[in-house]
């Protein structure tokens, strides 16, 4: 079967900030509609830098990038503005703003879409709650609802499972699967090898691309060692590997 | 015979310059009250202070060269707003330092122009701190025009200001890449800062532009209620400060600023009380 053209792709991409040295080298991958790709790597490995390039926030230093004009973003919830006087519904409704011409305000239909998105992430009852007073997991789900309202063909999520309780994580996992089933392409940045195994594709980064492909073929011990270096440990008895967590940015 | 206890207030209210002042204050409460919430939300308090101050050399120039004061003030305010915005875009991490530089430069330029070039030192106090006697029909019209512009911009562009302020990265990724809404916000800050000059002067624009919104932010948790509460509080502080100033023969700008500051302090104390 002929596959659809990639929705998001990079070819020999490199990126960096300002006049500082390049922090990400030689990234080449392609993700098609309906595919979920985990972006795996240690803190400082270049995951967030790649996401910034793909959302248009950062210009690439070299190589080619293909991306849709509209990208939904689910940032790390700790970076959200908790001081803003907005409800969960207000935040979800922000997803509608970019779809409207500049002279139009969000209308009743947009509010209905925002409510439906909140219901889909299981937060309809908390729609009037102040965003900054919600738990980390609930805020994460509100930001997913905002991306749903945007109706963007590509959604990038930066460490969406970090700090989530088991219920929120299961709900989010199911939701991302549903979105891919509806034809969306998703990139999920994570430092959790277990998470990366849950998706059809994985891109391993450690300041440059280590590997890209289905997790069964890609997540070999050699690849993980190159991705995580000395942070990789073998679990006693099982021969399985895990990553030592360090606190960092 | 009218009751002696109420007559001073009634007398004040019957004075034409007090009536003009109240009309201006009412318009400014709408303009600065609504815009103030955006200023506080988007962290533009220092910028608005600098833009207000920048109007000062413009006013001195207009006074000395004999052209319309509003033209001098708005010209300089827009020039400075544009310069700070342009420089801050190129050096985002240096925005505060750039604003401080511009603020000090504007104040110094105004003082030198007033004292050494035009010799208009007697009017400097009025320009810096406002004067009720200086309020005329054109000031009232300009204040209402500013209020209309702020309301229209908030209705049309408020949801964009909110979305880009809440999450600039996500807003750009979602296609909100135009700098026009943010540029409009900065221009409106300049327009309203100039509109407040007649009552509070160049140095105390923050008394109307920032302090009421910062006060009501302590007790509100939604944009709409915050904006309504700020307009109500700015009206109260503006009108109350103006009448107090008339009674005490004090400068209105300073009286409004002291009243607004005291109400902010009292609100913060009550909020912090266990």
Overview of the structural elements:
The complex is a heterodimer of chains A (249) and B (274). Chain A has 249 residues and is α/β, with parallel strands linked by helices. Chain A contains eight helices and eleven strands. Chain A has a six-stranded mixed sheet, sandwiched between helices. Chain A has a three-stranded antiparallel sheet with strand order 2-1-4. In chain A, a hairpin with a 6-residue loop joins strand 10 and strand 11. The longest helix of chain A has 16 residues. Chain B has 274 residues and is mostly helical. The radius of gyration of chain B is 19 Å and the shape is globular. At the A-B interface, strand 5 and helix 2 of A face helix 7 and helix 8 of B.
Key traits:
heterodimer, A: 249 residues, alpha/beta, six-stranded mixed β-sheet, three-stranded antiparallel β-sheet, 11 strands, 23% strand, B: 274 residues, mainly alpha, ABC transporter involved in vitamin B12 uptake, BtuC, 81% helix, globular
User: DSSP strand (E) fraction of chain B?
Assistant: under 5%
CATH architecture descriptor name of chain B: Orthogonal Bundle
Radius of gyration of chain B: 19 Å
Instruction: Report helical residue fraction of chain A.
Output: 25-40%
Which chain pair has the greatest contact? A-B, 32 and 30 residues
User: How would you describe the shape of chain B?
Assistant: globular
Q: What fraction strand of chain A?
A: 15-25%
- Beta strands of chain A, count: 11
Indicate the structural class of chain B: mainly alpha
The count of strands of chain B amounts to: 0
CATH class of chain B: Mainly Alpha
Corresponding CATH superfamily of chain B: ABC transporter involved in vitamin B12 uptake, BtuC
Query: What is the count of structural domains of chain B?
Result: 1
The ordered H/E elements of chain B are: HHHHHHHHHHHHH
Question: What Rg of chain A is obtained from the alpha carbons, in whole angstroms?
Answer: 18 Å
**What are the segments of chain B in which pLDDT stays under 50 over at least 5 consecutive residues?**
none
Low-confidence stretches of chain A: none
């Amino acid at each position: 079967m002929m596959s659809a053209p990639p929705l998001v792709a990079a070819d020999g991409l490199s990126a960096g900030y300002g006049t500082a040295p390049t922090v990400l080298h030689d990234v080449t991958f392609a993700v098609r509609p309906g595919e979920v790709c985990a972006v795996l790597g240690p803190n400082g490995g270049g995951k967030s830098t790649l996401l910034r390039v793909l959302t248009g926030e950062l210009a690439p230093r070299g190589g080619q990038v293909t991306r849709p004009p509209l990208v939904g973003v689910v940032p790390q919830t700790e970076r959200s503005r908790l001081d803003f006087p907005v409800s969960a519904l207000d935040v979800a409704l922000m997803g509608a703003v970019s779809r409207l011409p500049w002279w139009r305000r969000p209308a009743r239909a947009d509010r209905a879409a925002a409510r439906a998105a909140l219901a889909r992430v299981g937060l309809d009852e908390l729609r009037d709650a102040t965003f900054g007073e919600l738990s980390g997991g609930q805020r994460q789900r509100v930001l997913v609802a905002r991306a749903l309202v945007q109706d963007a063909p590509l959604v990038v999520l930066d460490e969406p499972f970090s700090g989530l309780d088991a219920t929120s994580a299961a709900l989010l996992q199911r939701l991302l699967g549903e979105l891919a089933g509806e034809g969306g392409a998703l990139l999920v940045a994570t430092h959790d090898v277990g998470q990366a195994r849950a998706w059809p594709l994985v891109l391993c980064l450690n300041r440059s691309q280590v590997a890209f492909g289905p997790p069964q073929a890609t997540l070999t011990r050699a690849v993980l060692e190159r991705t995580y270096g000395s942070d990789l440990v073998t679990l006693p008895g099982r021969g399985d590997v895990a990553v030592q967590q360090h606190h960092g940015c | 015979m009218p009751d002696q206890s109420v007559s001073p207030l009634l007398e004040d209210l019957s004075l034409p310059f007090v009536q003009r002042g109240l009309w201006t204050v009412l318009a400014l409460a709408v303009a600065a009250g609504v815009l103030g919430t955006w200023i506080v939300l988007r962290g533009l308090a220092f910028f608005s202070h600098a833009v207000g101050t920048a109007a000062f050399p413009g006013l001195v120039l207009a006074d000395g060269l004999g052209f319309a004061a509003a033209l001098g003030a708005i010209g300089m305010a827009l020039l400075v707003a544009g310069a700070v915005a342009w420089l801050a875009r190129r050096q985002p991490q240096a925005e505060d330092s750039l604003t401080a530089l511009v603020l000090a430069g504007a104040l110094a330029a105004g003082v030198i122009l007033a004292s050494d070039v035009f010799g208009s030192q007697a009017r400097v106090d009025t320009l810096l701190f406002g004067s009720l006697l200086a309020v005329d029909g054109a000031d009232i019209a300009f204040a209402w025009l500013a209020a209309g512009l702020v309301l229209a911009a908030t209705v049309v562009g408020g949801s964009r200001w909110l979305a880009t302020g809440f999450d600039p990265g996500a807003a750009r990724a979602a296609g909100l890449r135009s700098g026009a809404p943010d540029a409009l916000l900065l221009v409106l800050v300049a327009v309203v800062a100039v509109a407040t000059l007649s009552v509070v002067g160049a140095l105390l624009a923050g008394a109307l532009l920032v302090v009421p919104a910062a006060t009501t932010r302590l007790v509100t948790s939604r944009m709409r209620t915050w904006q309504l509460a700020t307009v109500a509080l700015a009206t109260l502080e503006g009108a109350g400060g103006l009448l107090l100033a008339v009674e005490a023969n004090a400068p209105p700008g300073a009286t409004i600023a002291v009243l607004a500051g005291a109400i902010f302090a009292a609100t913060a104390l009550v909020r912090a009380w266990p």
